Amino acid sequence: MKRLIYLAWKNLFDGPSLAPRIRSSLLAVALGLVPFVVVLHVSDGMIEAITRRFLETTTYHFQAFAYAPDLSMEEGVERLAAEGFLAVPEIQGMGLLVNGVRREGVTIRAVPSWWWEKDEGLRSSLSIEKGRFDLSSPRHMVVGVEVARTLGISVGDKVKLLVLRSFGGGTILPRIATFEVTGVTSTGYQDVDKLWVYVPFEWGDRVFDRRSSRAFLGIKVDDPFHDMEALRSRIAACLGAGWVVLSWKDLGRAQFLSFSTSRALLLAIMGLLVLIAALSISSSLVMLVLERAEEIAMLKSIGVPPRLVSRAYLWTGMLVGMAGSLAGMACGLLISLYINELFAFLEHVVNLWLRLAAGLRGGSYEPVRILSSDFYVEHIPVHPSPFVLWLIFVGASLIAFLASWGPARYVLRISPVEVLRREG
């Protein structure tokens, strides 16, 4: 074993011409793994952040729909509360929000005034940009930050909300109500809350026609990621007949499948870089074997077992892969942990240059935001998994082992007699 390690170490650090090529292969493996690790952690963090925002602010953990006309949402809330579940009655509809001459189509969410105080998950995912989440009055309204920006709304403004209500015989009449804006909220991801406005549940229950709106119980549990089927069955049994219970996976299946597919494609592309780095290990070992054919022949001629010499070159490739993997994973993990600070620094530098350029030409500039809430979450949570990092290390080392197999096998075919005769 000592001789094996000595020969592998000698291949890495001895020789004026090709040992540097081996070390460059180590660098290639490291550089190939850096983007892989960064993309893995950043994509996981973004998917986690977006998923949590959807769960806590939009889809809830479960939704229960009453398909029997005599069922009471209030009774459903009480039954679920008795079993330790938080149930939020909600009615969703469409309307037109008007502020002066500006108007915008919005998604109206009629929710109870106690939702903000009782739902810790909501408070962790929905930030109050201005004012407060106050629906204590029938004429209070809370709006999303994008709606406020589009219509020029601020806390304390009076706005008009127009909804269409259908009556018997196909008659549809508009209804206009005036609200006072008490708060402006943001989830940090505009695709979630771009058109939201919140109004008191009592107003929505009185105004919305159930045929043109969506009424349900939004249900929160302690852990929305485990034992989903068991929880669904328990909730359904608690509510009794006449209710349909859907989990967040059912409600957002297409959205979350899209996230997973995009992540897999990105990782596959980054994985190609690791494979290319493995090919550089193979080519470097081939050149190393050809350069040291005479040395290999001498070792065989003095009685060193051919398989020991072959394994030494196999170990050389393995050491390159393992060292490159550790270096690449360390750099990638460091970048991932400070990805938000890195983006903030890049934003600062770019905007500084834009401001200087605008000052020189006497114009204005539009600040650049890398993590704009129009497309991304504003803060990426990163939670490294030791098990996943271990799998990456093992996988990269295995790829390096396979890339070294061919050159190591070629060592066995080198004949001392032919090499010495050719050199002589």
UniProtKB/TrEMBL annotation:
InterPro entries: ABC3_permease_C (IPR003838), Lipoprotein-release_system (IPR051447), MacB_PCD (IPR025857)
Gene Ontology terms: biological process: lipoprotein localization to outer membrane
Domain MacB-like periplasmic core: 26-235
Domain ABC3 transporter permease C-terminal: 268-416
Entry annotated with the keyword Transcription: no
Protein keywords: Cell membrane, Membrane, Transmembrane, Transmembrane helix
Name under which the protein is recorded: ABC transporter permease
Species name: Winmispira thermophila (strain ATCC 700085 / DSM 6578 / Z-1203)
